[in-house]
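On clarity, I found the account of how folds are encoded harder to follow than it need be. For illustration, here is how one protein appears when written out as sequence plus structure tokens:

:::
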Amino acid sequence: MNNDLLFDFNVDKAAKTVYITREFNAGLPLVWDAFTKAELLDQWGAPAPMRAKTRYMNFEVGGRRVYAMISPDGQERWAVQEFTSITPKTNFKMYNAFSDKDENRELPGSDWDYNFSEQNGITKVDITIYNESFERLEKLLEGFKIGFTMTLKKLEDLLATL
């Protein structure tokens, strides 16, 4: 592991926005694929000991990913991600909301904006998450930073094996 890789997590409560920057010791095409292909997302997209399982994913503007995070005892927490903008290899945006298994969303969800760049074989991913509800944002932050940090570590480990 390269300990010089950047990981930054900041919250602007007034703007109801979370800013995350994470560098990976892997090329941009591989990191892009890890964020946009279901078979790779399922290998890292949930904090341990949970695992992710994509029901279906259509990565195009207006398309969706429906997936569950599954606990070791089999409990499922479903979410729907709707892709609102895609610029291949550099940016995509989505609306993310928890849901039931029938895709009935729990509102409000969050707007996620992913930006990718590479320099000298290090790929940087900037993630901006906006939630219209300050109360929901604060509730999410309780466990979100720990869980998301664990999830990104799983991605780092996966990238080292690909």
Notes: The chain is about 25% helix and 45% strand. The first strand starts at residue 7 and ends at 12.
